[in-house]
């Protein structure tokens, strides 16, 4: 028997269509939260991620929503919570519970639903607060969470590099255009803070590593290099593998100085890491600020010029295009066509 306030089949179908229309992870998460807020009686919904390369015990808030016109308003969800707290203080619902549709009925209840990612590993937790939990809401959330997880797996398959699990070149094209559009609109708003930067990295002498130790060890270097990237940069930063030994980061920092400090910290982390069999590996990098009105090809070319300068002048260093122009180390050159990374 369906409750009187149950969503009708048309609304459910439209919600599923809306969820599966999304083409990137952030939009998919936002759509899931908006859908559950609309279809259930939840007072607050918070999606927490377990960041790749993080400490493995801290959940980071990804998306959050509360019921509209709620009196009194629910307190805002904390930005970070310990994984142990989510498992201890909320009813941790395993997938078998979701499949069986078991619910906890109480005057007020908070339930943590596990979000399962690649390799059947826990990738996050969906925390839902109810004034009173119904079997209908519980089953609905379980069903939409499974749809979300299945579609997330399809997105990862199409948007991520198979070897390193970083984002791929196709996804970069979508993300850089999105950031450029945001930067263009930011010119019409006041109070926008932060600096967007495109950084290109190239592992020094990678061909020599492959020739000396074989492609198996070369692939291990790429995997470990990607792991150092995820551990060094923030969860909000976008990390890509372009192919071969070429990697890219799109990051936002408070200012240029903090950006360069982050890139230098990454360079040092790579330099200090003892790669199995291979030993020390170094990286060269070049970066450029992202401003509205620019073209992706121009930005890549400028960052690549800074990268080439790093390699030409001793490798194992990172330079910013704008700084090199100011210092007279590079000349402003308009270049069209494809860009080769060295």
CATH top level label of the largest domain: Alpha Beta
Fourth CATH level, the homologous superfamily of the largest domain: Reverse transcriptase/Diguanylate cyclase domain
| CATH architecture descriptor of the largest domain | 2-Layer Sandwich
Radius of gyration: 23 Å
Distance, first to last CA:
65 Å
From the helix content, strand content and strand pairing, which structural class follows? Answer: alpha+beta
Mean pLDDT level = 83
Written account of the structure:
It is a single chain. The chain is α+β, with helices and mostly antiparallel strands. It folds into two domains: 9-159, Beta-Lactamase; 169-326, 2-Layer Sandwich (Alpha-Beta Plaits), CATH 3.30.70.270. Helices cover 44% and strands 20% of the residues. The chain has helices spanning 9-20, 25-39, 83-89, 95-100, 135-159, 169-186, 206-213, 215-232, 256-272, 296-312, 321-326; strands spanning 44-49, 58-66, 80-82, 91-92, 109-116, 122-130, 195-203, 238-243, 246-253, 283-289, 318-320. Strands 3-2-1-6-5-4 form a six-stranded mixed β-sheet. Residues 89-107 and 336-342 have low confidence and may be disordered. Its cofactor is Mg(2+). One of its GO terms (biological process) is cell adhesion involved in single-species biofilm formation. InterPro entries: Diguanylate_Cyclase, GGDEF_dom. Residues 194-323 form the GGDEF domain.
């Amino acid at each position: 028997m369906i409750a009187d306030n149950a969503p009708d089949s048309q609304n459910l179908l439209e919600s599923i269509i809306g969820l599966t229309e999304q083409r990137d992870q952030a939009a998919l998460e936002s759509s899931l939260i908006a859908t559950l807020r609309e279809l259930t009686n939840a007072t607050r919904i918070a999606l927490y991620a377990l960041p790749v390369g993080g400490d493995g015990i801290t959940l980071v808030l990804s998306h959050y929503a509360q019921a509209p016109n709620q009196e009194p308003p629910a307190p805002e969800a904390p930005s970070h919570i310990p994984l142990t707290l989510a498992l201890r203080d909320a009813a941790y619902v395993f997938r078998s519970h979701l499949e069986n549709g078991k619910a906890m009925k109480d005057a007020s209840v908070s339930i943590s639903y596990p979000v399962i990612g690649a390799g059947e590993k826990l990738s996050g937790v969906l925390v839902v607060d109810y004034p009173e939990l119904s079997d209908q809401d519980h089953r609905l959330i379980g069903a939409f969470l499974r749809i979300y997880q299945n579609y997330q797996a399809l997105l990862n398959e199409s948007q991520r590099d198979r070897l390193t699990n970083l984002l791929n070149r196709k996804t970069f094209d979508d993300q850089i255009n999105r950031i450029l559009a945001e930067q263009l609109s930011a010119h019409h708003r006041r109070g926008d803070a932060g600096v967007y930067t495109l950084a290109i990295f190239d592992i020094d002498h990678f061909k020599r590593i492959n020739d000396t130790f074989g492609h198996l060890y070369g692939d291990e270097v790429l995997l470990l290099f990607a792991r150092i990237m995820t551990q060094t940069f923030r969860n909000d930063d976008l990390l890509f593998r372009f192919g071969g030994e070429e990697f890219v980061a799109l990051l936002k920092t408070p200012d240029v100085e903090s950006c360069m400090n982050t890139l230098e910290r990454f360079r040092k982390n790579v330099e200090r890491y003892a790669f199995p069999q291979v030993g020390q590996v170094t990286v060269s990098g070049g970066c450029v600020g992202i401003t509205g009105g620019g073209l992706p090809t121009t930005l890549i070319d400028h960052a690549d010029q800074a990268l080439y300068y790093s390699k030409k002048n001793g490798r194992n260093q990172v330079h910013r295009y704008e700084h090199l122009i100011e210092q007279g180390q590079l000349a402003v050159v308009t270049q069209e066509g494809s860009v080769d990374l060295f």
